[in-house]
Amino acid sequence: ITLPPFPPVASEETTFIVAGEVPPEELGFRNFRILSYSKNGGPPVTPPGVLELDVGDRCRVNVGFDHMGDTVIGELHAAIGNLHHVPVDWIDEIVNAKKTFSAPSIPDWAPFEDSLDIIITSAISPGSYSMYAKIMGITGGDIFTEYLENVITIIGVPPEEADIKDFDFKLAKGTYDIGAQVPFTAPYDYKGIAQDGQLTISIGTGIAPTFNPVHTYNPLPVSFDAAADWETRGLEGNIALPELEAGQTYSVRAKLETLVKRTQETDTDWSAFDITPGPPT
Questions:
Q1: Which of 155, 185, 215 is the last residue of a domain?
Q2: Are residues 169 and 128 in the same domain?
Q3: 173 and 246: one domain?
């Protein structure tokens, strides 16, 4: 009898393979398991604990296994869905994620860990769901973790819009040389869906409210996690000062924007810094 490629539900940490395939130890793997799962990379929940998520969140799945032998390049796959028991136990996947991994050549068993993020999309409705992971793309067949039954609870109604407020960009004030790395902070409030965004920074001259840009940096990527209500967040980093006029005072303007449900806020830090004066002429 050929069984479908679904492992049974287990009451303890076990590594499963499809019937008739090579035992995982012979492939250089053992004790493949889900170590924990968390909301947006926050505090981890260990099996069989239940994690509550909203649509728009990221479920970070941490997996572990022991490896021995040659270098192996494969694919990790994790999924959330409905657990069925007929004809055997299997999960009807609703949301999933995958990533490439590499296990180096090693002469004896050694532990390895990795993680991948499952985006909770509107494809999944409020309710309780199960989860599993598997190793794919290796010679000898897929390797499965146990099924974790009803460990994920989807709650609430997903936010459908997005908004930013109270964006306050501040550069560390001072007198700097060309090429100096100048730190900045940029707190803001956000509510809305999970989406990508960007921060665009420009240097310019002028007196408020007139801003004359002289240099604009490439946009910096920003990741907005979902928020059903206003949440205070912040960005920080450094900018490298380009070729500017010696002795001149400059302002800095920053634009924070989302790229799916479009919204943006702009803030200007007037007279933010000076460039070191040049030698007397």
A1: 155
A2: no
A3: yes
Query: pLDDT grade, residue 279 (50/70/90)?
Result: confident
User: Within this chain, do residues 148 and 65 fall inside the same structural domain, yes or no?
Assistant: yes
Percent of residues in the chain assigned helix, strand, coil, to nearest 5: 0, 60, 40
Asked, for residue 231, whether it belongs to a domain, the answer is yes
**Residue 10 belongs to a domain:** no
CB atoms within 10 A of CB 143: 25
Query: Is this model's pTM higher than 0.70 or not?
Result: no
Closest CA to 142 of 5, 4, 3, 12: 5
The CA-based dihedral angle spanning residues 258, 263, 268, 274, taken in that order and rounded to the nearest 10 degrees: 20
Share above pLDDT 70 across residues of the chain, in percent, rounded to a whole number = 89
**CB-side neighbour CA atoms (13 Å) of 164:** 27
C-alpha span between 106 and 276 (Å, rounded) = 55
Least confident of 158-162, 216-220, 233-237, 267-271: 158-162
Chain-centroid distance of CA 223 in Å reads 8
Domain residue limits at 88: 16-155
Buried b (16+ CB within 10 A) or exposed e, 153-184: ebeeebbeebebeebebbbeeeebeeeeebeb
